Amino acid sequence: MSEAQKPDFDARALRDAFGAFATGVTVISTSTEEGDHGMTANAFMSVSLDPPLIAISLDRKSRMHEKVRASGRYAVNILAQGMEHVAMHFAGRHNPELANFFVNHHHLPVAPGAVAVFLTEVAQEVEAGDHTLFIGRVLHLERDPKAAPLLFSSGSFHVLSAAGAPS
Ligand SMILES: Cc1cc2nc3c(=O)[nH]c(=O)nc-3n(C[C@H](O)[C@H](O)[C@H](O)COP(=O)(O)O)c2cc1C
């Protein structure tokens, strides 16, 4: 990369600016011969309606990365308000009370109480720097229309409050 193309910010500034984008919170889950595995993630997006595709971005150093490669399948569980402890557990703050948290649906671990769940098979992998984008083809979905999503912004959890419809 030439001198002119070097970024003029450091890693901390980049991380903080990324954090300014308010998101929901998900737990990615999959199952391999070693058992079920979950990982908290907010790098999730809807991609395509037809065919139904979603994408997640996994750190190449995460255990989830190798497990999704091994299984070729993953679920995205959108967490509801009040599930902060679940987000922390699957972000590395182990909570023994959540050791048997998942239930099994369509051969994938699913988070009880999630706002919505997308069960996918991996359709495409895109190497992107220190992460890999896993594009998943949605085979099953579940949704609780009454549950409110948990939010995440600038390193903290938040709850939804209506600000009016877009005009
Ligand atoms: C709110 C939140 C969002 C996160 N989003 C992601 C993400 O999108 N991708 C990712 O690779 N890690 C993300 N992480 C970090 C992982 O959850 C964390 O590194 C986890 O311990 C990795 O688990 P594993 O190595 O056991 O799979 C996030 C953490 C938090 C708290």
In terms of DSSP E residues, the strand content is 35-45%
How confident is the prediction overall: mean pLDDT? 96
* Most strands sheet: 7 strands, antiparallel
Low-confidence stretches: none
Q: Topology as H/E string?
A: HEEEEEHEHEEEEEE
Classified by CATH, the class is Mainly Beta
Contiguous helical run count: 3
Helical content class:
10-25%
CATH superfamily: Electron Transport, Fmn-binding Protein, Chain A
Number of strands: 12
SS content category: mainly beta
Which ligands appear in the coordinates? Answer: flavin mononucleotide
Instruction: Quote the distance from N terminus to C terminus.
Output: 44 Å
Overall description:
The structure is a single chain. The protein has one domain (24-153): Electron Transport, Fmn-binding Protein, Chain A (Pnp Oxidase, Chain A, Roll), CATH 2.30.110. The protein contains three helices and twelve strands; from the N terminus they run H-E-E-E-E-E-H-E-H-E-E-E-E-E-E. The protein has helices at residues 11-19, 63-71, 84-89, and strands at 23-24, 26-32, 35-41, 44-48, 53-59, 73-78, 103-105, 108-110, 116-128, 131-143, 150-153, 156-159. The model has no long low-confidence stretch (mean pLDDT 96). Flavin mononucleotide (FMN) binds next to strand 3, strand 5 and helix 2.
Describe the structure using short key phrases:
167 residues, binds flavin mononucleotide, 7-stranded antiparallel beta sheet, 3-stranded antiparallel beta sheet, Pnp Oxidase, Chain A, 3 helices, mainly beta, single chain
Write the layout of secondary structure elements.
Layout: H1 11-19, E1 23-24, E2 26-32, E3 35-41, E4 44-48, E5 53-59, H2 63-71, E6 73-78, H3 84-89, E7 103-105, E8 108-110, E9 116-128, E10 131-143, E11 150-153, E12 156-159
This protein binds flavin mononucleotide.
Flavin mononucleotide is lined by residues 25, 39-43, 57-59, 62-64, 87, 91-92, 152.
